[in-house]
Amino acid sequence: MLDHLKANNRAWAEGSVAEDTTFFSRHENGQSPEYLWIGCSDSRVPANQIVGLAPGELFVHRNVANLAPPQDISAGSVLQYAVAELKVKHILVVGHYGCGGVAASTQEGFSGPVDQWLDPIRNVYEQHRAELETLTDEKERLNRLCELNVIYQVQNVAQNTYVQDAWKHDRDLSVHGWVYSLRDGLITDLGVTVSQAA
Length: 198
Ligand code: CO
What we know:
Elements: H1 3-19, E1 35-40, H2 47-51, E2 58-63, H3 73-85, E3 90-96, H4 100-104, H5 113-117, H6 119-127, H7 129-132, H8 138-158, H9 161-168, E4 174-180, E5 187-189
Parallel strand pairs: 1-2, 1-3, 3-4
Antiparallel strand pairs: 4-5
Cobalt (II) ion binds at residues 40, 42, 65, 96, 99-101.
């Protein structure tokens, strides 16, 4: 079963060691990544590849539509571990244009957990309804919603207890909001970086 994936894995492991004999051995005793990536689960948005980081360099959390709501214990656990234990220096909240989760939040007819999960994006839409509805092109409107969603998630992360605690202790830690384009593979920095408690 899935022999092609196992063959890929063997080739990757062998190739990695051939290029760098310590590729795996240097990770055996721990990790100290400088960056935490909070991104979408979308298969077209591969965190490490986009920013050219190797294993050990990027702590990654991905979910549908790159959310970090305060009540979510999964994102909360990632933040606690990355900030309080690993002491990352940068948290990258990375959305992407053409996000299916963001689009789904504006549509009727979804049920199950995803419907509840996407609720925070509906709140973002409501807060910015006037601005969004000036955009008559639906794709443009959804892309703006992708950006606004990132900005709200940056605020959520900045209000996280462990992030606030790091700033209280004058630790070097920034939260950034980025959007990735599926069309050209490029990241846009939304210019909403937070580096200290408000
Ligand atoms: Co997405």
